Amino acid sequence: MRRILLCLAALIAAAVAACGGAPDELPRDTGRQLELSRDRIAAAIDTRERLASSPVAAQRLLARVRKIVATGALEPDQLDEFGLAALGELGLAAPALVVYDERQIPRQLDRDSLRVFLQKATTDPDAAIRRPAAIEVARISDLLGAADAGPDTTIPTRGQATTDYLTALESRLYPTWPDLAADLAATRADLR
After folding, report:
1. Comparing C-alpha atoms, which of 23, 25, 24, 5 is closest to residue 13?
2. Residue 165: which residues within 8 A CB-CB, separation 6 or more?
């Protein structure tokens, strides 16, 4: 009788954990999306560092981006082969302005981020490239919330726990955009 009660208690505990607990591992697609977000944040930080390194470097990068934009190939909403080639060039110059797919192929221009970049690249490096990083911080929070991730939930594409993933991104963001790092810290604190 005692053995039956112990087995029944174990089954109930397993059922409760399965219903209300965080998953052990995120879906692969969610892991890929988190990787893309991490990469775009890193690209934004690197671009910001290039802009802030010297006025000459900022002028060069801005001139390169303007030259690509001036071709007009990026103007249509639906990019043709010339637009996709220009998008690839822009991705080499300022990768945070481009949205990539899971195979790291440039797929879309972030037009609003480009507009801000063109306005502020030489006067305010932090503001010039902050928008792509902010978008990805919000996306990370949404992805982890939708997946009901816990602190120890594994990201399959990284083999890393969500807490470790967020902590690494926070430390990378903090020197440049402490408010975005704080947003990730809040996301990490919300993991259950």
Report:
1. 5
2. 34, 38, 155, 158
Cα(118)–Cα(66) distance, integer angstroms: 8
Which tokens in the block code for residue 71? Answer: 């071709």
**108 DSSP β-pair partners:** 99
pLDDT tens digits, 2-59 = 555 444 444 443 443 444 567 899 999 999 999 999 999 999 999 999 999 999 999 9
CA distance 168 to 152: 15
Q: What type of residue sits at position 79?
A: L
Whole-structure pTM value:
0.84
| Calpha distance 37→21 (Å, rounded) | 25
The span from the CA of 108 to the CA of 80, in Å, is 12
CB atoms within 10 A of CB 121: 24
For residue 115, what are its two tokens? Answer: 């507009």
